[in-house]
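note to self: dont lose this again. the chain is below, predicted strucutre after it. 159 aa total, dont forget to put it in the shared folder this time
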Amino acid sequence: MAKTSKLQDRVKAITDGKGLQIPEYGLNEERGVGKPTLYDEYVIPTVEKLAEKGLNNTQIAKSLCIGVRTFYEWLEKHPQLAHALKKYRGLADIEVENALYRNAVGYTYKEQVVTNRGQVVTVNKYHAGNSTAQIFYLKNRMPQKYRDKVEHELSVSQD
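---
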């Protein structure tokens, strides 16, 4: 049985071992000078999942059992990794934007409740818009109109 690295074990744990081909590394493989890199394309699906969950670069590096500096080096050297990170992080950002918008304008949702007679029925409920979310949204989307105006008072002494 081949010995697996800590990184490979971590990737298997994160992805539940589904759909990823994790290569086995032999001891006699020729690699050139210097310490061999832990990077392999099998980390891309893992990075995609972690970015989609909203993890930042430091958290992703820690999840992969590598240093933050190493992770940034990987992003520079491997454009496919950087592209995947940007794409899936963008999906997480869109999801948060949509949630903020829904909270700002309000939304209707279905909920199951139990009646006095013990019957389970589905009812429509309305969640009113959140004024803090509305203010945040307007300040960021229309800053010229809704920014906080700060009055600056200038005093000059005549000594």
